[in-house]
Amino acid sequence: MHSTARQGQPEGGTPATPAWACGVCAGLHAGGCREVVYVPDNPLSHILEVFKRDYPDVRATLAMREEEALGIAAGLYLGGARPAVMMQSSGLGNTLNALGSLLLAYRIPALFVISMRGGAGEWNSAQVPMGRAVVPVLDAFGIRHMEIERDRSAEETVRAAAAWAFGSRIPAACLLPRSLTVPGGRQ
Amino acid sequence: MNRFDATICISKTLTDEPVVVSLGHPAYDLFAAGDRPLNFYTWGSMGLTTSIALGLALARPDRRVMALDGDGSLLMNLGSLATIGACAPPNLIVVVMDNGKYGTTGGQDTPTSGAADLEATARAMGIRQTATVRDESALTALLDLSRRTRGPWLVVAKVEESSPTAKPPLDCEFIKQRFMGALGNPEEKEAART
Q: What are residue A14's phi and psi, to 5 degrees?
């Protein structure tokens, strides 16, 4: 049984798995996702670790670019799977034509998990413009988005986003702000 | 061999395998050579044909999956060859219709009209089963060999441009639903799980 209850136990001196990462994995799993296509990012690596450790039935596939990840996800859906796509906010900018002319045009759903950069406290100015554009861009495409604000709401938020995406056949996005993934830390 | 000759040649060999085909002339030719529910015609997302086929091959290991791509399209997404090399799905075959041109946009040259070599690129990315063919008999022989061996395969078919004679249906949702139904995982069943 997967639950968020197991989180937070340091093992062998390694840092505890963050509770939000356990919640995101539990929510994706409960939402039926067994296929995750991703381009790496630091916070997302926690999610990949939890999948590897606790969910042997989930396959994670590395893509070279976020646009490619959407193509792979579309093929997974055509084959009967419920795909999740994980990327950094900068990567959303790489997906836009695939989002419009493949996922939305064919009404192919996927659940996006987006690790945010460019918000309050961002030290890298190159991350700011795309980070600020994420929500307006998602709105422009009619993609429903939900921010995960707290550890304990992660599972339920992701599960609700999955139900929305795969029920409506329109992608949905869960946003992971740095206030969640790097609390009090350097951005 | 022109692209339509090659497409007819491929079309004759198809049985129950799904085919994901690149937008524009490759899709027009596949439709003209023989429409079937197991053809997934893309109308956009240039560069993603091979990636869509990879996802399908991962989700459906019980089926042989074909990507019918173009040189201009694959050149937009060369990283997909590294992903295929890493995932190594044994049931995937990528056929690249390589005319050295952006055929659908007016026939401008691509780098494969010069030094660029897509078969060598695939090999460098870890795809071991590769070939370049220049006539119908070699193409037919390669397609036959690819059925009897483990993939992933990448076959570059050197072709001349030809004029398409027909266009596939424009309704993207129709294309998808027909395709998923023919694959045995109809979308209505999927949505009912929600």
A: -80, 155
> Is residue B185 exposed (0-12), middle (13-18) or buried (19+ Cβ within 10 Å)?
middle
Query: Of the given ranges (A119-123, B118-122, B123-127), which has the lowest mean pLDDT?
Result: A119-123
- The contacts of residue A183 (CB under 8 Å, 6+ apart) are none
ipTM: 0.97
Choosing among B17, B58, B78, B177, which should be mutated to test the A contact, i.e. which has the most A CBs within 10 A? B58
CATH numbers and ranges of domains, chain A: 36-181 (3.40.50.970)
Q: With 50 as the cut, is the pLDDT of residue A149 above it?
A: yes
Tell whether omega for the bond before B152 is within 30 degrees of 0, i.e. cis.
yes
Q: Which residues pair with A59 in a beta bridge?
A: A35
- Across-strand partners of A84? A36, A111
Closest CA of chain A from B119, distance in Å: 19
Tell me which of 3.40.630.30, 3.30.465.10, 3.30.360.10, 3.40.50.970 is the CATH number of domain B3-192: 3.40.50.970
Distance of CA A149 to the CA centre of its chain: 14
The answer, for A134 touching chain B at a CB cutoff of 8 Å, is no
